[in-house]
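Can't paste images in this forum, so I'm doing it all in text. The chain is below; anyone willing to post the predicted C-alpha cells underneath?
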Amino acid sequence: MASHRASHRATRRSSDDSNLFDKSSAEFAELKDKLAQMNYRNKNAILALLFPVAIAAKVVAIFLLPDKYFFDNTRILNMVNGTAGDSAWIGSYQVASDLFTSLNFFDFTTMVQWSIFLGMLFNILLFFVLLKADSPDLLQSLFILATVGLMNIYIFNIGKDIIQFAFFLGVYIVLVLPIKNSLVKVLGSAAILYFESTFFREYYILIAGLVLVVYAILLYFRERNKLGLGSLSWIITLLLASIYAVMLISRVIMPEEYTTIIQLRAGYVDSFGTGDNGGIMATAIRNWIPGESLPIFMVNYVINLFRMLIPIELAFRGAAYLPFFVFQCAVTAYMVNLIRQINKVRDPAKFIALCVFIGYVLASAIFEPDFGSWTRHESATFPILHLLILNPLQKVPMTAEERTLKAVALA
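Text version of the structure:
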C-alpha cells in the first residue's frame, strides 16, 4: 500500500511538472513573472552596489596596499612626470607613457589623482555595460562585484592594463552592434586585437589569429545536438593543436620570434632579476621541465596552462592569495561550463565573446610571466568576460525553486 501511494505521488509530481512547463498554463506564467522579478532585483542590486564597491576598492588601493603592487604604474607615472631617469623603459611602457602624457589635461602628477579620475570615468562606462547585460543569480552577482573591486584596485589607474581594457571595450562594442552577420563581428573583433598588436602589445596578433581558429572549431561543435565528455576532449585537443601549429609555422617563417617564445620563461629571470619587482618573481611561472625543443615547450605549455587556469599553488602561498585563487577557479569553471554547452549558445555576441576569451587565454598562457600579471590582465578583459558569465546557461540554482525557475528561463 505504501509503495502504491509513493508511486501515485511520483506520478502526480510528474503530471504537475508536465503542466508546469506547458507554456499556456497559469503556473508557467506565474513562474515567468517570478523569474523576471528575481532578475530585476539581482540586476538592480549589482548596479546599486557598483559604486560603493568601487569606492571601497579605491580606499584599499590608496591606503592599504603596499607600493610593490603598483610597480608598473609607478614606473609609467614617473615617465609621464619626467622623473624616471634611467628607470624609463621602452616598448609598451613608452606607448603608455606617451598616451597618458597626451591625455594629461589636468596636469596630474600623483597616482591618487589618476586613480580617482580614471576610476570615476571607467566605472560610469562599466555601469552602462552592466545595465545592458543579462540579469545575474547570486553567485554571478558576487563574481561581478568582486571583479569590479579587482579592476578598481589594479586596472582603473595610470598603467598599461587600462589600455588593454579599452581595447576589449572596443571588441564589446563590435559584439553588441545590431549586426546580424556573426562572421562580420568575429572579423571585426580580430581586427581590433590586431590593431592593438601594431603599436602596443605585439603578441595580440597571435590572439587575433587564435580567435578565428577558435571560432571555426567551436562553430563546428556548435551544430551538434549533443555534446558529451568526448566532444569536450576533442575541443581541448584541437585548441592545443592550434598552438602547436602556430609554433610549427613560426619556426619556418619567423625563426627569431620562435626562438624568443621558446626561451621566454627562462628569459624572464634575466629581465626582471630575482628581486621583488612588484611581486613578479614572487609568483613567477617557471617551466617545470628544462629544455628548448618544441615537444618540451608543448609539455610545459600544457602544464603551465593548467597551473594558470587552476592555480592550486597560489592557495598554498597564504591567505592573501586565496581571493586570486578563487577568482581564477571561478573564471575557469564558467569558461569550461560554457564550452560544454556550446551547442546551446545562440546569442552571437556571447558565442564570439567566448571565442575571443579562449583565444586570449591560449596566447596569454605563453607570455604571462607570473600569476599576478595573469590575474590582472585577465580582469582587464571584463568587457568580454562578463558576456560569458552573465548568461542563463551559467546560472547555478541553489534551491529547488531556483532550479525550476532556471528550467523555465531556458524553456
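The mean pLDDT is 86. The chain has 19 helices and no strands.
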